[in-house]
Design a protein that fits this description.
Oligomer: single chain
Number of strands: 0
Order of helices and strands: HH
Helix content: 55-70%
Largest sheet: none
Shape: elongated
Distance between the termini: 101 Å
Length: about 90
Amino acid sequence: MPLDVRGYRPGGFMDILAALKQEEAKLQKLADTVRQQLDAVRAAMKVLGREVASSDQPIGRKKRTMSAAARAKISKATKERWAKFRAAKAKGKA
């Protein structure tokens, strides 16, 4: 096939542009679908009582902190339970 003035085959350059425009339209349609799905997910999250968080804030409850006294009380109770368990185990071996 002979080349035109710009060095392209007749219809070749326009075929590429047409294909790119078709691909753009396809991707735009896909992006619209994804946006609709994202909106539906966000709406469901609001219905369930959670705020839609931005990228830097977690969704859900704030992490609870425990006082030093409460941690000490739990630690003491755990140590007493394990001491009781070990004493019973040692009694069984003897």
